[in-house]
Amino acid sequence: MSTGERDYYHTRDGSYRDPSNWAVMVFKARHELAVYYKGRLFKAYHAVFGRSREHGTKLYEGDRRTPQGVYMISGKHPSARWRWFITLDYPNAIDRLRYAALRADDVAPVLRDGRVIGEGGSIGIHGTDVPLLNSGDINWTTGCISVDNRDVAQLHRLLPIGTVVIIKP
Question: Are the C-beta atoms of residues 108 and 129 closer than 8 Å to each other?
Answer without folding.
Answer: no
